[in-house]
Amino acid sequence: MPWSLTVPSPILCKSDGLSFPSSPRINGCHSPSSPSSLPLCTPTSPLPLSSISVTTPLSPSSSSSLKSPLSLCIPKPPQFSLGADAAVPSLAKRKKPPMIEIPTPVAVKMGFAAVTPRGEEEVQVDGEGYSVYCKRGRRGKMEDRYSVSVDLNGDSKRAFFGVFDGHGGSKAAEFVACNLDKAAMAEVSKRCGDAIEEALREAYLTTDMDFLKEDVGGGTCCVTAMIHKGDLAVSNAGDCRAVLSRNGVAEALTSDHHVSRQDERERIEALGGYVDFCHGVWRIQGSLAVSRAIGNKHLKKWVIAVPETKLLKIQPECEFLIMASDGLWNKVTNQEAVDLVRPFCVDVDKPEPFSACKKLAELSSWRGSFDDISVMIIQLERLQLNVPLIDHSLCRHVRSGSQVACI
């Protein structure tokens, strides 16, 4: 059966039934040669139905009924008839256009910016008497560093440990990790054994001045532990923290240097600086959220490198020491950390401090930490058993009796 299509588009007609010539812009065709019919125009690409006009010749009755010189002829509504022998008109198929590629400066995948140097995704160190686990956060390049110096001057019970959380880049953390231990031992050797607190203070300040001479931006928070003649000296500048497990009870050996601390805020304001609440955090000059750190040349007037140090005798009840960056402590409390680590390290035949380090980092990450997470566990119990802190057969980088790890 025949197939026909009529679209209700108005056609102007004369009173004698003849159609006016159509506009050349309709469907892209010129006016038809026959005044009583319009040909089917097949454009190069299919158009909506309203742009296709198919009409039959006007009947004499319709032309004779027109009275005015100019009348409007409305064609019949569309009529469809299908049959077995119907010839369906074919329209030229439009090819699918190619996908438009819009260039993007940053491609994000799994929370990491693809254009940012990835650096180390994680660092795993399982030493004798200590373990370290560092996990890169979701903000960019890894900025945390750590250092371990053991068997100093041939004494297996003399060691220096550090965790450093860089900001504004990793240069400061890397510099401090490779130099602070040497500065500390140099200062200790100048003084009597009772002046270790003063020695550590001078070591922090000397390292800070040396880094500022490098004329490099950024800074780093620090937490360090020096074991010397049976004493434990823990120092910090910034918000890295050290927590001691004393018979299963968490004891913070450091106090975070946040701008919100009353004494730190008063010191900054007394020096002409200002502290304001910006993006949910108290900051110096609307910028840095810590009041003490090594580096930060542009804020050096207020951000000092003077550490706070706590000394204590290592007693049998001192089980282990946890040192970590704020990537851990922002999501895990002191007691939670001790409770998680203790089953891996205390009253077990084979301690697994490295597994405990990794579990802590995973817990913080699971709770939503976006920051780099660095965790170090030092087994203080080993000192009570006269066990060396390191097996020299496993030492890969030995320099003057020290192992220094800079990641």
From TrEMBL:
<keyword id="KW-0904">Protein phosphatase</keyword>
<protein>
    <recommendedName>
        <fullName>protein-serine/threonine phosphatase</fullName>
        <ecNumber>3.1.3.16</ecNumber>
    </recommendedName>
</protein>
<dbReference type="GO" id="GO:0004722">
    <property type="term" value="F:protein serine/threonine phosphatase activity"/>
</dbReference>
<dbReference type="InterPro" id="IPR000222">
    <property type="entry name" value="PP2C_BS"/>
</dbReference>
<feature type="domain" description="PPM-type phosphatase">
    <location>
        <begin position="129"/>
        <end position="380"/>
    </location>
</feature>
<keyword id="KW-0460">Magnesium</keyword>
<dbReference type="Pfam" id="PF00481">
    <property type="entry name" value="PP2C"/>
</dbReference>
<keyword id="KW-0464">Manganese</keyword>
<comment type="similarity">
    <text>Belongs to the PP2C family.</text>
</comment>
<keyword id="KW-0479">Metal-binding</keyword>
<dbReference type="InterPro" id="IPR015655">
    <property type="entry name" value="PP2C"/>
</dbReference>
<keyword id="KW-0378">Hydrolase</keyword>
<dbReference type="GO" id="GO:0046872">
    <property type="term" value="F:metal ion binding"/>
</dbReference>
<dbReference type="GO" id="GO:0009738">
    <property type="term" value="P:abscisic acid-activated signaling pathway"/>
</dbReference>
<dbReference type="InterPro" id="IPR001932">
    <property type="entry name" value="PPM-type_phosphatase-like_dom"/>
</dbReference>
<dbReference type="InterPro" id="IPR036457">
    <property type="entry name" value="PPM-type-like_dom_sf"/>
</dbReference>
